[in-house]
Structure formats: C-alpha cells, structure tokens
C-alpha cells in the first residue's frame, strides 16, 4: 500500500512539473519583450497551487526535477549556463517560499473562508518573488552583465502578477476542493452561463477599444458573479477577463495602448489591473462564505436544539416582554393539559393560581425591567382538567426587549415525597426520643435537652430524679402489665403537676427525671415536694383488682456555677439514694457537697 501511494505521489509530481514546463515554454515563446524575458509567467503558480492542494506531493522528487526542467527551458531560450542555472534556482526558491509562507500565514484548507486570506497570501507572494528576483538579477548580472535593478524589476513584474492571479484562480477552480466552498444552494447552470456571459461582454466592451479607460466596468459583473458563485465565481470571471484582455492586448488593442513605453509595460499594467480587481472580489467571496457557513451552523444548532427540546421531559419556554408565551416545547402539553398551539400567545400567569399570581407577577416584572437577572420559585398551577400541580420555575432574562426564558419542572411528586419523608423523619425522631410505654421523653432526649440548656448558660436550672418505692413488689405480686399501668399513671400524674416549660422524662425502668428551668432553688424544691405528695395521694385503679397507692423517692439538685452535666446529675442521684436510705416517700435536697436536710415526708 505504501508503495502504491509513493508511486502515485511521484507520478502526480512528474505530471505537475511537466505542465509547468509546457507553461514555461509558452510564456517564454509568446510573451517576451525586447530583452528576451517573459512578460507573463504563470508557470510557477501551477506548482504553488499543486503543492498547496495535492496531499501526496513528492517533495523529494520535486526540487531536482524542477531544477533540471527549468535549466533545460532556459537553455532552449539560448540562455548561458550561469543564467539558466540561476533562473532555475530562483524558480525553485520562489515556489518553496510561496508555499512555505502561505502555509505559515494562511490556512492550509479552506483558503477562501477568511477575508484576510487574500492579504496574507499577497504578502507571502511578494516576499517569495522578492527573494527569487534577487537571485535572478544576480545571475543576469554575473552572466550577461545586465543591470541588477532592471533585471530584478523585470523578473518581479513578470512573476508577481502570475502568482497573484493564477494561484487563487487554480485554488478556487479546484474541482476536488470542498472545504473552501460554503454550503449554499448552487445556482442553476443557466445562471452560471448568464453570469459568465455578462462578464465576457463587459470584458469585450472594455478591451476591444483603446480610447477610454473603462476598466471600472469590469467590477459590477465581477462582484455579481462573486455574490452568486463566491470565490469560484470570482476566479472564473477573472480567468475569462484575463483571456479576453490578453487576446486584445496582444493584437495591439485595449485601454492600456495609450501608455507610452514598451509592450511589456502595457502587459504589466494589464496584469496589475486584473490582480487588483481580483483581490477586491476575493474578500467579498470569503465574507459570503462565512455568512453561509454561520447560517448553516446556526440552522444546524437550532435543529439540534429543537430535537433535544422535543424530547426533554421538563417544559422549556420563552416569554416576550409582555408576559405572553412565545415558545413552548411539547412537554408543556402534558403539564398544562392543552396543546402548545392553544397556549402560545396567552399570558403566562393565566394558569397560575390566584394565591401565587401576585408575588410571581412582581418578580417577573423585575426581570423584564432588568432589576434582576433570574428567578427560581415554586408556584401552583391549575390544569385544564382542574387538578392542581406544583411547579418550579427557573427563568433567566434574555436580551433587551426579548423577555425571559427558562425551564418549568413539575415538582408535585417531589414535594409530596419530601413531605412524606419529613413526616417519616419526624416520626423517627419522635420514636428515638420518646419512651414507648409512658410517651414521655426518654433518657436520650432528657440529656440532650439538659446539655442544650447548660450550653446556653440558662440560669436557674434544677434536676430532680425519682423512682417508685418497692416497685419490684408490684411487679411480683400483680404482674408486669399492672406494673406498666402504674408507671403510666405516675408519669401522667407528675406531668400534670409541672409547667409546660419543664420536662419530665423516663430515664430507666422505674426511674424518672424532671428538668426544672427558670425557677430559683426554693421554687424548684417546692415543686419537687408537690410532685412527691401528688403521687402518694393518687389512687390507681387496677382492672379486676384492688386500688393501689404508690410512693416515690426523689433527690433534687440546683445547678451551681461552672458545674457540668455529670456533676449535676451525680448530686441529684446522691440525693435520691439518701431519700431511699432515709425511709423513702420523701424528697432529699443536695447541696454543693453532697446532701442537705430531708424535706417533709409526704
């Protein structure tokens, strides 16, 4: 496979150099002035265009082959060996520099997609021709004694227009180049023929007479051809103008004839005129190409957006500055319950329930006025069938006077799920902090609340801890179900005797705790005494059993400055144990050290 590609590369390079040789022979033979130098030299442009377009151009074979062919052409024109070799070197340098600089300063593909390409190509071409002209002028000076500056000028005037005109023409008319042409509707063959006939007619009118400088008449048909056919139209028009103008000039007819001087001067002026109008048309072709490419890209992106929007489950919308729907994707039909066509043109707030309409209208007005850029809000809408749905609106302000757009998401199920999750979380939290038997806060909840009060440095805190006297005997004599009834009755009795701000918790089997806040120690002790009396005076009716009376032993400790939770609980526990040792059914009060005197028994 590599050998086949190499063979094709060599063959294409040989054929291109052969075409160059034929063009060089024609230029030398038919366009020579008094000094036997060619006035028109398009041969190098053929190789430059081929090197830019042909991917498999053989750069190893090309330099020696070109040197040999160029030397033979100049020897055939009766040039000395030094001049022939110098001209061959100059041609090679010119082609290499033109290709190198064009690739360096211009895109390798899509030459006519950028308006600045023509200018950069002209700079690259002028630089390459200046280098080759210096080499050719030196060869003429050393071999034939010609004036160095005159030789350089003659070389430049022949080679520069040839590159400036022929290379863009060949690149534009390259039938295999699809990157440099925009995606646009190609005009019919009849339109192309008509445009080229118009160009040819203008060229004939301009160049078949020698009295008036009518070259400006070439611009309208050239611009018209460029407008419809882009760079290819400009190249084809210039090729037609060049052939017609060359025919008349070489028959001594044309608007350049009044110029006094050698024939070469008239040819140079003709080439420069041609290059000027061509390089005026090329940027126009590039601008039109970019316009069509951007239009195609915009259309493709719009098509992709619509393709995606039609498949998005959320509603994509756009609203004008007056609050009316101007775009809705198909998902809106499922959300609102009406076809998109029916909803377009209606006001956005029509489907919003009255309770949410005023606040939403105010925020949307701020977006339209520019005082805010976006919003995110949940509102309720009424569908056509009367059902209420909750939606989240995410809107963003568009350009001035274009309203706003964004997304509408149905969050009804999500809000329902969130509410269910919240209720479940609350239930779990309640279960985690509640005693299942008495429905009082449990040990975990009690210590969390006590810790929070101490962290807030709440003043006047007291903790009372109590348990039922001889509760084991109740369970042993009457059974655990009766014991559960007793625990519930004691819990309700104590809870009914405290304030709403106080906390009663079951922290063990028959052990309870009371957190008393916002009371001085005397008030807390008074409350504790009432709790002991309330339990002892209560009668507990047992189903199918006797009336029970139970008592409690309680220890109370008031919080001391800089005292932590563990120390406070420890003092209350010690007071409780002292109450049990002191005969039960009583309250013991802890002091800063251990235990104070007992309270009156209930």
From TrEMBL:
Q: Which SUPFAM superfamilies match?
A: Nucleotide cyclase, PYP-like sensor domain (PAS domain)
Gene3D superfamilies associated with the record:
3.30.70.270, PAS domain
Catalyses: 2 GTP = 3',3'-c-di-GMP + 2 diphosphate
Question: Per its UniProt entry, what is the enzyme's top EC class, as one word?
Answer: transferase
Where in or outside the cell it occurs: the entry states: Cell membrane
- Per UniProt, which keywords does this protein have? Cell membrane, Membrane, Transmembrane, Transmembrane helix
User: Which CDD domains does this entry report, sorted A to Z?
Assistant: GGDEF, PAS
Domain PAS: residue ranges: 301-371
Residue intervals of the GGDEF domain: 459-592
Matching InterPro entries = Diguanylate_Cyclase, GGDEF_dom, MASE1, Nucleotide_cyclase, PAS, PAS-like_dom_sf, PAS_fold, Rev_trsase/Diguanyl_cyclase
GO BP terms: namely: cell adhesion involved in single-species biofilm formation; negative regulation of bacterial-type flagellum-dependent cell motility; regulation of DNA-templated transcription
Membrane-crossing segments per the record: 12-31, 43-61, 81-101, 121-142, 154-176, 188-207, 227-250, 270-288
What Gene Ontology molecular-function terms does this entry list? diguanylate cyclase activity
Record-listed E.C. numbers: 2.7.7.65
Q: Which NCBIfam families match?
A: GGDEF, sensory_box
Instruction: State the name under which the record lists this protein.
Output: diguanylate cyclase
Which organism's genome codes for this protein? Gluconacetobacter tumulicola
